[in-house]
Amino acid sequence: MTSQLQLICLLPCHSLEDFPTYLVADEADGLLGAWAALWHPQLLAAAGAIPTYRRGEAGLTNLHRCVVAVPSVCEQHVDYEADWDAQQQHVVLLRHDHDPHALAQTAIEWLQQLDPSEEVAEPATPAAWCDDFFALGYAYLQVELLTRRMHYSSNLDVKQLTIHAVAAAQAVVRGDDHAGREELRRCFGVLAEERDHYYPVEVHLIDVTLLAPPYCDQRLQQQLALGIPVNLMASGQTVEYLRQHWPDLIDQLKSLHEQRQLAVIGGEHHELPSSLVHPESVWHELQSGIEIYRNALGWVPESFGRRRYGLHSQLPQLVAQAGWESAVHFTLDGGVFPAKGQAKTKWEGADGTLIDSLGRVPLDAGRPETYLNLGTKLGGSMEIDYVATLVLAHWPGETCYWYHLLQRVAAYGPVLGRFTTIDQYFQQTDYSGQRELHDEDKYASPYLQQSVARQEGDPISRYVRYWHREWRLRQTEELFTWGTLLLGDGAQHDTSDHRRYEHWEAIHRHAVDGTVATTTEADCERDVEERRMDAARRLVQAMFKPANPSADHGGKRHVLINSDASPVRYGVCVEEAVVVAEHERIQVCVTEEHEGYAVVDVPGCGFMSLRSGSAGDSKSPRRMLQSGKSASLVDATALTLSNEFMRVTIDDRTGGIRSLYDYTTRGNRLSQKLIWQVPRSGRDPRPERGRTTGAKRPIPAESQPLCHSVTVARDNACVGEFVCRGQMTQHDASATETTAIIEFEQRVRLWRGSRVVEVELTLEGEPSLTEDPWQSYIGSRVAWASDAAEIYRDLQCCQRPTSQRRFESPQYIGIDEGFRITTILTRGLPFHRRIDDRMLDTMFVVRGENSRQFRWAYGIDLPSPIAAARQLAAPPVWVDDANRSAASTGWLFHVDAKHVTVTAWEGRVDGQAGFRVRLLETSGQGGITGLAGFQKIKAADKTDFMGRQLESCEVRDGVARINLRPYEWTEVRVSW
């Protein structure tokens, strides 16, 4: 072939120093395609040289016998009519196509027409060889860009590269595959030597293939057949689907895993919104996932990860408790998480647990811009990472052509890095020594916005129902375990009856995904309540002997069982009965219109019994009050509710709470009203960055509530309650008539001796709301006095400070003013928006929300906010007509730290007498916690959740002393 043929690519830059790595989509694809097409072996053989580039603004002047690739981004710089005549100057343009095969074929056909005697008329080169040469051209471009990104001058031996590239092309053209392969290897060796000048260490490429049931088909089989190390990110649910529908794929996964060509990243059975659920729910999904992986694959993934958002600072210890030593610190469906620092680090949890983590955010393997600026990304990792790492994520079969070329480059040598499994990555790479404890405010989930965008039902109330049932399920498991321990090893009990509600537990947990029908949830609710009462009655039978008929005192016997570790003061109502005051734990009892009321104290992990009689029972006084207590909590004239701890004043204009005062500090602690916020388009005089004054942008429009009436619903020595009725209206900015009306009824209730004021809300009407839930909602707004107050929120039952404007807290929010703490008990309402330094909105209704009834409460100076949240959602169990000789009060277990909550009680699984208990430190204090039971404890050990012993606990006088780190969640194995 003549050596005068030139291969030129027009570039939209003056040199590679200002190469446009910022191009995206078709422009990036076109630029790469134009460059790669010129590396076709038949063109290299015809030219006898590798391609060069030319500045796009230089146009097409002074060209002869040239193949010129013109990417679409350079089209605007070329004047085809003025600059050249293709037929006279013997120049062919490669335009209007992104496929390098098609572009190269155009050039080959032109050469054949230009001189049919040339060797280019040989049979067409196989596509696989073309791809190898295109990969060489791509690698050459990226190495040159990488060199400049690393601020080095190029030392590339272009002469040697040209000699080997032309020799390889000529060998391939004449059909000598072996020689062509060897020469290509030498080409890639030359490029690798250039990179080794400034980074003589291996670069790790990690392919993360996302897997879900719709992609479990031939696309996955085809990818696995490529022979490139791959990492499948698959939940237990997906692996179970594979086992049932694609057993051949399971066998292929097992084979590749044995060859160390495949790793699985996973953990949970179902990927719940983990920051919004109870930690036991997360642990349940981890257990189920581990079992599925082991049964389906024969092994458990070595690295934990999840595709759906679910990162938070409590996660490392959950992962470590389940036996994982490494995790990926990224998710792929939205949300915010910290992504700075090293690629491989030690991720430190809130309790101090350390696990290896991969924190490099994946690049989209299906977008051409990923590969256009690959050298830039690699250079950035080489500069800052102790272990240079690049992660590419994609669904099976959903990559682009340049990903295919990158794989071919890696097959020839480590020019741009080697593909590896994540298991090998953690095993074979060194640790930089950096530990990363991420502040919780750096995480922000997309759950609410995604639910509204997907038009899922009940994006808020699904969590309310979840927490309502979750605490009752926790109660049920605790009561059942206590009953089994009391009955002893020889007791006969039906284990199948204990597990017959597992189906409903699954429905309960998955309801937070919005995939469960309302009718099914209703069945679940009913059966969960039945199970709870069955466990309570079983425990009463285990605690007390049958009553002696001759010792009947008349009336009915009732037992209140508190399964929480903290004591509770609880207000009860017995219809058509009178509560008999039998002992000092009954603070107040009254009878009003055939209803019996009482305020009682129930010890933690204990019980209290009381008796109710008829209205004519001479032993049942109508009202019993301790000295100094007023006969009523209600002042109808002043619209106030008052007890020993607070005074609540109702606002007759808004129907909310005007003020909440205590008797030890000065000033109003809290005010509350309903709010309906909808953004509307208008002219805002305030300038915004990038906008001019007066530009149109969304402005929040707030509808204020208007109260029509305030009435007294209850008024006695035990409880006082106001009912406020009114409406909220929304007006269109361009109209004078009302477009929507929402009727509301808000009840405010206060029990004697309680630090908590309860609120219930009922709405009627269909509000007009927009698609942005954070700007368009109905909610409750509270205001407090100090703009320096620190806000605390709940994260998996732990108290964490927050300064975020939008945050999640499904159980409680603490407002700490330094000398007093006011707590909002949200009762499952998870989404909150801070308006300014002294106001906060709790969201009730957004688009798609069907529920119109909500409950929450406000507490003052609560000893344990998590205990108060639990007791509000799951109060002590009331067992009616207990035909037993019940003692007046007592406890079964005792935890002496208020900041420690019990998440689960279970029996021993090793056949020894005793039990297992999981303890969670909730406030960040840490310290020694005492644990006692109805029998003296002989020995106690701290274990992880897989049963492996961590340390022994000191036992004194039958009480175990357990040392807990701040926010630590641990299991204690106790022997009687």
> Tell me, what's the shape?
elongated
Radius of gyration: 35 Å
Strand content is 25-35%
Q: What share of the residues lie within helices?
A: 25-40%
Largest sheet: 11 strands, mixed
Q: How large is the count of helical segments?
A: 23
| Cα separation of the termini | 92 Å
Number of strands: 51
**Poorly predicted parts:** 490-501, 618-623, 682-699
Helix- and strand-based class? alpha+beta
User: What is the subunit organization of this protein?
Assistant: single chain
Summarize model confidence as the mean pLDDT.
Answer: 85
Please explain how this structure is put together.
About 30% of the residues lie in helices and about 30% in strands. The protein is of the alpha+beta class. The protein is elongated. The termini are far apart. The model is unreliable at about 490-500, about 620-625 and about 680-700 (pLDDT under 50).
Give me the secondary-structure topology:
Blueprint: E1 6-11, H1 25-37, H2 41-47, E2 52-55, E3 66-69, H3 80-83, H4 86-89, E4 91-94, H5 100-114, H6 127-149, H7 158-173, H8 177-196, E5 204-210, H9 218-224, E6 230-233, H10 236-245, H11 247-258, E7 262-266, H12 279-297, E8 303-304, H13 315-321, E9 326-328, E10 344-348, E11 354-358, E12 363-364, H14 368-372, H15 374-384, E13 389-394, H16 401-412, E14 418-419, H17 422-428, E15 435-436, H18 447-453, H19 461-487, H20 495-499, H21 502-510, H22 518-543, E16 556-562, E17 568-575, E18 578-580, E19 586-592, E20 595-602, E21 606-613, E22 623-624, E23 634-635, E24 640-642, E25 646-650, E26 657-662, E27 671-683, E28 696-703, E29 706-715, E30 719-731, E31 738-751, E32 756-764, E33 777-783, E34 790-795, E35 798-802, E36 806-808, E37 812-816, E38 821-825, E39 831-836, E40 839-845, E41 853-860, H23 865-873, E42 877-879, E43 889-891, E44 893-895, E45 900-907, E46 914-921, E47 927-933, E48 939-943, E49 949-956, E50 959-964, E51 969-975
Helix pairs in contact: 1-5, 1-6, 2-7, 6-8, 6-15, 6-16, 7-8, 10-12, 19-22, 21-22
